[in-house]
TrEMBL record:
Phylogenetic placement of the source organism: Bacteria, Pseudomonadati, Bacteroidota, Flavobacteriia, Flavobacteriales
UniProt xrefs under HAMAP family: NDP_kinase
NCBIfam families recorded: PRK00668.1, PRK14545.1
Uppermost EC category: transferase
Protein name: Nucleoside diphosphate kinase
C-alpha cells in the first residue's frame, strides 16, 4: 500500500560529517525497514529536476549547488504510516525548531543544511523513490 513507503535522502552535509551510520541506526530503531538504498551523487540536472517545484524560489540555485556538492544516500523506507511517521522522526526543517531526539535536531546545522530529506506525501514518496530507483532495486 502507498502509505507504507516513503523516500529519504541523507544530504551531502550529513554524509560529509560522517552521520550516515547514526542516521540509519535511528531510522531502523524507529521501526522502518530499508527496501532500497544507495550512495550516489546528484548531477546538476538531477537536482534541478528533483527540486523543480522550487524553481521560482530565491533559494533554488543554492539548493541545487548544495545537493550536488557531494554524495547522498538515497533510500526507500517501509513502515505503516511511513510518510507521517518519518516526518515526525526527522523533525522540523529548521533544526533550532526541531524536537529533541529528532534526526535534524541531532545532525542538522541550519535550515539550508538540514541533514535529511523526507517525502511530504504518499504521492511524492512514490515519485521521489521512482526518480532514484528502478523497480529491480527495491526489495
Amino acid at each position: 500500500m502507498a502509505d507504507n513507503r516513503t523516500f529519504t535522502m541523507i544530504k551531502p552535509d550529513a554524509v560529509e560529517n560522517g552521520h550516515i551510520g547514526g542516521i540509519l541506526d535511528q531510522i531502523t530503531a524507529s521501526g522502518f525497514r530499508i527496501v532500497a538504498m544507495k550512495l550516489t551523487q546528484m548531477t546538476q540536472r538531477d537536482a534541478e529536476t528533483f527540486y523543480a517545484i522550487h524553481k521560482e524560489r530565491p533559494f533554488f540555485g543554492e539548493l541545487v549547488e548544495f545537493m550536488t556538492r557531494g554524495p547522498i544516500v538515497a533510500a526507500i523506507l517501509e513502515k505503516d504510516n511511513a510518510v507521517e511517521d518519518f516526518r515526525t522522526l526527522i523533525g522540523a526543517t529548521n533544526p533550532e525548531e526541531a524536537a529533541e531526539g529528532t534526526i535534524r535536531k541531532k545532525y542538522a546545522k541550519s535550515i539550508g543544511e538540514n541533514a535529511v530529506h523526507g517525502s511530504d506525501s504518499d504521492e511524492n514518496a512514490q515519485i521521489e523513490g521512482a526518480f532514484h530507483f528502478a523497480g529491480r532495486e527495491m526489495f
